[in-house]
Specification:
Layout lengths: L6 H5 L4 E8 L5 E8 L7 H15 L6 E7 L11 H7 L3 E7 L4 E10 L4 H15 L19 E4 L2 E4 L12 H10 L4 E7 L4 E4 L4 E4 L2 E7 H5 L7 E5 L3
Parallel strand pairs: 1-8
Antiparallel strand pairs: 1-2, 2-5, 3-4, 4-5, 6-7, 7-12, 8-11, 9-12, 10-11
């Protein structure tokens, strides 16, 4: 399940996640995640927490106005990867757009792939980097995959999303879980598939089909409680 990890989860009381898969005919494409935490600026408590975190990282005069790109290769853990692992993620980055004046806070990741099978490998490499990173900076916990990468099976003009494997994260205690539920009340996750041909059939729960595009929207709280899942198949035409 795609979620912000660690402190980032509790830094953003109102946030939405958009997960997009662009698939080409040859199986290549790109995987994009957009985390929109703009709602925190309207929450005095969470805004104050963000200001404190920003000051700890950048100093007392730090303003909540920035548009920056953070490369994973600049994190401490990158140096401990093998040369092959470094080659796979050296160009990957996250873009942070934060503006208090505009009420905007966006974290964007774009990950190109030759095959959807690469996503799990890339996820594992990024997890290694972040587990070794000592920065603890404001955005160091924003992993585009969360605890696990989505898993897919590709067939002839068919894409199947497999059920998420069991999480390896430590379970939250009751108090932490209750706090998470409070913060996730209005949060939602939207997954959008951009397919190389017109959709013939889709059996993913809560899916809306529009030409070559499939959109699934779920409450993050329902996902946390495992009331909904993202598994299912999309069949599409040649063009």
């Amino acid at each position: 399940m795609l979620l912000l990890s660690g402190s980032m989860l509790f830094l953003t009381s109102c946030f939405d996640i958009i997960e997009e898969v662009y698939l080409n005919k040859d199986g290549s494409g790109k995987y994009i995640t957009t985390i929109d935490a703009s709602g925190l600026f309207s929450n005095p408590f969470m805004k104050s927490a963000l200001e404190e975190a920003a000051k700890e990282e950048g100093g007392e005069d730090t303003e909540l106005e920035q548009d920056s790109v953070i490369y994973y290769k600049d994190m401490t853990g990158f140096a401990d990867l093998t040369s092959d692992e470094q080659a796979k993620v050296k160009d990957l980055n996250m873009r942070i757009t934060m503006s208090e004046s505009k009420g905007e806070f966006i974290i964007l990741n774009k990950i190109p792939f030759k095959s959807l099978n690469e996503l799990e490998e890339i996820s594992n490499i990024l997890a290694k980097i972040q587990s070794e990173d000592d920065g603890g900076g404001l955005f160091s916990g924003a992993n585009p995959f969360g605890s696990t990468a989505p898993q897919f099976k590709q067939g002839k003009r068919e894409l199947t999303r497999l059920p998420d494997p069991p999480s390896t994260d430590e379970e939250m205690d009751d108090e932490t879980m209750d706090m998470a539920r409070m913060f996730l009340t209005d949060a939602k996750m939207t997954t959008i598939y951009h397919m190389p041909g017109k959709i013939k059939k889709c059996d993913i729960p809560n899916a809306t089909v529009d030409g070559k595009k499939v959109t699934i929207e779920n409450s993050l709280l329902d996902m946390l409680d495992e009331k909904v899942n993202q598994a299912g198949s999309i069949k599409y035409k040649r063009k």
